[in-house]
Amino acid sequence: MSNDNTPEIWFLTGSQHLYGAETLRQVDANSAQVVSALNDSGVVPVRIVFRPVLTGPDEIADACREASASKNVIGVILWMHTFSPAKMWIRGLQLLQKPFLHLHTQFNDVLPWSEIDMDFMNLNQAAHGDREAGHIHTRMRLNRRIVVGHWAQERVQNEIAGWARSALGRHDLQGARFVRFGDNMRFVAVTDGDKVAAESKFGFSVNTHGIGDLVAAIAEIGDQEVDGLVEEYGDLYDIAEGLGRWGDRHQSLRDGARIELGLRAFLTSGNFKGFTTTFEDLHGMRQLPGLAVQRLMADGYGFAGEGDWKTAAMLRAMKTMAAGLPGGTAFMEDYTYHLDANDPLVLGSHMLEVDPSISAERPRLECHPLGIGGKSDPVRLVFNASAGPAINVSLVDLGNRFRLILNEVDVIDVPHALPKLPVARAVWRAKPDFVTSATAWLLAGGAHHTVLSYALGTQQIIDFAEMVGVELVVIDDETRVEPFKANLRAGEVYYHIAPGLASI
């Protein structure tokens, strides 16, 4: 998959005419050098674009208006190199429709003590210029990320890079299209939700196509295309006995390949970035899509089962954030527990569709019966997930607002063989401990479907939630049940009144 444009972040520097033309030229040169260093760092995933220093309300408003209108701009970085009176920024900030990061830095790292004069002081005033900016940001109740430290430090560059990844995720959802083949699973609450509110809040649309539309696309696929894809499977995966060319289940593999080709063609022609299926609506399908879904997710498409469009959208956003980073990001489900009193564990899986980007091994392509759906036995990739720290993220609709729930976990090597469980699986220890984690998750209303990511950390989801204006609750090593409950109650109040607070 590819995005429709080349994303970029604008670097906007504030000053004023009080200090003279020479100082403003130096501000411009210094800002350009900061931008060049950030671009050369190799950690920021998008290009940062230097913009000339801003010194008055009209310039600021024009820059913010232009950034907001640009399809390529995913966010802006603001830095007050000198003292830039904040009332000059009010109109521009009211016009700005992109997320912004406030970089609290200065051009020099250490002070040249013996050489400091008033010219130096007038030039290097971020210590109080950025405080003036911070005041107006807070007074206007603006969500933003603040990064503090010298621009050349690795920590600072990594924090900017993490925020940029969150901005990429938000940007990718603007105008994104997701398709549901059928409705969500009957009588299920958490996979349902307000698609109109979601489009208003996140920017993506969700619409339904009958499964017959997909069946028609699959029927258009020729045998030669299927032959080529089956050959590709053999190069990438271990193939179970019976699925090979002369095996008695080879037709199931060909059916799976045909489904993948048809589904891929449908998504491409409709410019969809994600999709859902449901085992309750498979009229005309030979098998429930398993292998096809796994491979499409590995290519960057969002997906969730049983019509869960919210998780499909979060998977797409988080895959966009994680692009190029080590570690996978996958659709997941808390399936069952190992309730050993000394070491409780969660076994995560799904009936077919877990993304091989998290596999610890070369996946094995197998075909087994499936007790639901009423169709022929589906093909799927079977593997154990990699070990390592990860996050589990859920997006739910609470009726009056959306909430993101995040649990930090440690995925471990699968501790025992699972010869009778022919699906992908992951086993983890939830932080801070099983009882606290599960209690907090239930209190927050978290779903059973999640996005599991080794590539992203908690901070990227914090930044994403700030950008879209959605509540986020985090379950980590510091979580305690009673303070967590108090935070949930406070959130009920805050997110009810917050829309009315945005004023100056």
Give your account of this protein's structure.
By secondary structure, this protein is of the alpha/beta class. It has helices at 21-40, 57-69, 90-95, 118-123, 126-139, 154-173, 195-202, 211-219, 223-236, 250-269, 291-298, 309-322, 434-444, 458-468, 481-497, and strands at 8-14, 47-50, 73-80, 100-104, 145-148, 177-181, 205-209, 238-239, 274-276, 302-304, 329-338, 345-349, 364-367, 379-382, 388-397, 402-412, 425-430, 449-453, 471-475. The strands form four sheets. It has a six-stranded antiparallel β-barrel. Strand 3, helix 3 (90-95) and strand 4 (100-104) form a beta-alpha-beta unit.
- Range of strand content: 15-25%
Low-confidence stretches: none
Return the average pLDDT rounded to an integer. 95
Give the proportion of residues in helices: 25-40%
Q: Structural class per helix/strand content?
A: alpha/beta
Main sheet record: 6 strands, antiparallel, barrel
**Multimerization status:** single chain
Q: Walk across the major sheet and give the strand order.
A: 11-12-17-16-15-18
Tell me how many strands there are. 19
Number of helices: 15
Shape: elongated
The rounded Rg comes to 25 Å
Quick structural summary:
The protein is built from 15 helices and 19 strands. It is of the alpha/beta class and 504 residues long. The relative contact order is 0.10.
Spell out the key features of this protein.
15 helices, alpha/beta
